[in-house]
Design goal:
Helix 5 packs antiparallel against helix 6. By secondary structure, the protein is an alpha+beta fold. The N and C termini lie far apart (about 75 Å). It has three domains: about 40 residues, no CATH class; about 190 residues, Growth Hormone, Chain: A (Up-down Bundle), CATH 1.20.1250; about 140 residues, no CATH class. A four-stranded antiparallel β-sheet has the order 1-2-3-4, with no helix packed on it. It is flat. It contains 14 helices and seven strands.
Length: about 425
Amino acid sequence: MEEGGALVLATERYGGAESWKYEAKDGVMKRSRGSEGGATESTVFGVFKSVFLPQGYPESVSSDYLHYQFWDTVQAFCSSLSGTLATQASLKGVGVGNQEATVAAATVTWLLRDGTGMLGRILFAWRKGNKLDSEAKKWRLFADVLNDIAMFMEILAPYFPVFFTLIVCTAGIFKSVVGVAGGATRAALTVHQARRDNMADISAKDGSQETLVNLAGLLVSLILIPLVTDNPTLTLSLFFLFTIFHLFANYKAVRAVVMETLSEARLSIVLQQYLRDGQILSPPAANQREPVFFEFRKKVPIKLGVSLRDVVESPDELHLALKNNNRPYLVGVRNGCVCVCLGPEASVRDEIRAACQALCLSSSLNPSAAEGNASTKPLIPNSHWEMVCESHKLMDNIFSPFLKGVEASGWEINRTLLDWDEWRVQWKSKSI
């Protein structure tokens, strides 16, 4: 191929950013920037991009990466400024600047705060660690709200000297929960953003972005500290202002995330829409409807991957659980919960089907949810086992076209974020 008398020997591209071509002219090979393809970049922007964005951006990350990182940067900046105000109040509370305060008393207070925080970190990870993957958005937002509450307590603590230690220890527990929930959910979001098995690179660049933001926050804090010292009114006013921006940015950040992996909340949204009008929601549409706050309204809970005794208590009940069921899972209703017992040979598709069936049963058992929803009315017979039997028939009719539609709409069906426990049961149906 010849261009302007020169023979083009080869072309190359660095990601989607820029292209180059090699030309042979008069026996010499020359390299020049190509005119087609990616846009040219300034040297400053190119350096900034290589330092703070993952290699191969934007092809190497999810489509929601930049939107999420923008709001995450805003919330980190606001949190840094609020943290400065809280730190100043804590130092004042332990006696910095007070000639009557002792080093021993300040040290004991600090150690008690750190110690209770360590215990809180262990207990929270034990109780809620398995929920942080399946409900990453909720726990991410919860962590930031709790962090603001903890900082507010630290700001108020010096004005209640009698309860100062109790207040800062409670705030320390809250911050330890924030550390676990925030760090774990950030890891879950990194898994979602990594499209080239580049989790470490994304995590490292996220750390660089956060460091840059904290540095900017530090510079602004140097201006704020002289203004707020011994001025509680201004301190609280600025704190509430930063907190409002912080919470708003966090809400926008979690709303920007579009996960293609099915969790219980996203599967419920997609399934209910399908039962209502046969439409399969795309990942962006379902993610926009996904709740990001914890809901306190009463609903029938679902337990996935439970022990056999949580589903049946007698051979007769096992016989009822197996009625119209040739799948490697058992479904039952016990103690106000829909429970699913999984067999060892169950595939990911079986897990999705079992979760769909459990969601249908949960909606049918919840009068407020079932009211006015025609799709759940056929599943309300006289007994729970009759309801389970009818739900098997419903799944036989709808699940195959539903799953095909889910896959065609861009959802990931080879893995899920459904909250399965570790029980696996091998039952013998022939003896029943």
